[in-house]
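1st attempt posting a full record on here, be nice pls
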Amino acid sequence: MSREISSTGQNSGHLSHSGHSGHSGHSGASPELRASHADRDRTVDVLRVAAGDGRLTLEELDERLEVALSARTLGELAALTADLPPGSVPGGAAVAEVKDVLRIHQKHSAIARAGRWVVPRRMEIVAEWCEVTLDFTEAVITQDTLRIDVDSQGRNLTLVTRPGIVVDVDGLALEHSRFRTRRAPAAPGAPVALRVELVGRKSFGRVVVRPSRRTFGQWLLRKPLALPAGD
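the predicted structure (as tokens):
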């Protein structure tokens, strides 16, 4: 008998076969069919996106990932996402759009990723005298680590973060360049949703890590930046 994860992340000891297929891309398939590695990977992506959106706590995510990676049937996987919105990716982005590597090679122009862009598993940035901005404020996060290989000369590399995102620059060599960071406000004990690891070389210009700027209304009222739901 298979296990079911409830909305609180607890094992209920059984799996209901009411025909609900969940939102892991198994709609219409028999819940008794054996799951493939690709099926498990899709479910893991959905769970990570849901945790990044604040729909699951870190403990719930860990519990569901453990079950997903050992699931034998599509029914077991469907139970893990039954209480999550379809696709668990607002704005129409699909989990299938997650790239293994996103390569950006640019000269003498601006580069920006903003809005609800899907964060890849790894990035390569080769830039010459380009202003590079990666805005994670509304980004769709499907894994807990992003490695960015940097080979950049001139201008600034800016990472705009939100609570739960930390940036590690230990692997980045700076030549005639400076690093400036200002962390986004976070609730005490908030889990880390994404760790960004910068590695490679940055010469001239600056590396800036900062939270999203206040809106004009927030500035007037001196209101703190809103935290994602669940924090």
